[in-house]
Amino acid sequence: MSEENQLLWCCMSIIKAEDNKKWINFFVAVIAILSGFLVIRFLGQMGEWFDLEAKVPYFIGVSQGLGALIGLVVFLVVKGNEGARQHLDQVYSELVKVIWPDSESVVKSTIGILIGLSILSVIFVGVDYVFRWLLNLIY
Fold first, then answer.
1. Residue 77 and residue 28: Cα distance in Å, rounded?
2. Residue 16's pLDDT is what?
3. Within 13 Å and on the Cβ side, how many CA atoms surround 84?
4. What local confidence, expressed as pLDDT, does residue 95 receive?
5. Is 110's pLDDT higher than 90?
6. How many other CB atoms sit within 10 Å of the CB of residue 74?
7. Are residues 117 and 88 in the same domain?
8. What is the pLDDT of residues 57-79, one digit of tens each?
9. Cα(135)–Cα(3) distance, rounded to whole angstroms?
């Protein structure tokens, strides 16, 4: 391993040891917020389709409260589930092991992909032109 990789590995292992629970809690909180948001949006759409705003008093407040309650339940269920916590711990430990590419290799890969796509585009345009020419000869 080069010195940069050893330093990166050392720093990533320190991050793993200290920030594991913080990142997992953050991820679970984001999932809970998204769940609550989806419930609110779903109930809002149902309200529009079935005109629930007119039929249910305080429909918007009820839907937002229900969304917040669902988000809280999702957070508590995921945090209380031992299997989910172990899985998230394993995911985080594997994510810490990832060696992210440097900017130079990303630029080189992007340029290579753009060149390859350009070549394939020219080939497809050429084939399309030949087929159009042949079809014009037939018809």
1. 10
2. 52
3. 13
4. 84
5. yes
6. 19
7. no
8. 999 999 999 999 999 999 999 99
9. 62
Element (H, E) at 94: helix 82-96
Q: Are 61 and 88 in a shared domain?
A: yes
Both tokens of 105, joined, read 């290799």
What is the pLDDT at residue 133? 96
pLDDT digits (tens, 9 = 90+) for 2-33: 555 554 454 455 455 467 888 889 999 999 99
The DSSP letter of residue 58 is T
Using CA atoms, how far residue 24 sits from 47, 61, 73, in Å, is: 34, 30, 17
pLDDT at 97 over 90: no
What local confidence, expressed as pLDDT, does residue 18 receive?
62
Which amino acid is located at 11 in the chain? C
Count of structural domains within the chain: 2
Terminal-residue alpha carbon distance, the chain = 65
- What range does the domain containing 19 cover? 3-100
- Residue 133 φ/ψ region, left for φ over 0, alpha for ψ in the -120 to 50 degree band, beta for the rest: alpha
Examine the domain organization and report whether 139 and 93 are in the same domain.
no
Q: CB neighbours of 44 closer than 8 A, spacing ≥ 6?
A: 60, 63
Rounded Cα distance, 72 and 35, in Å: 9
Residue type for 1, please?
A: M
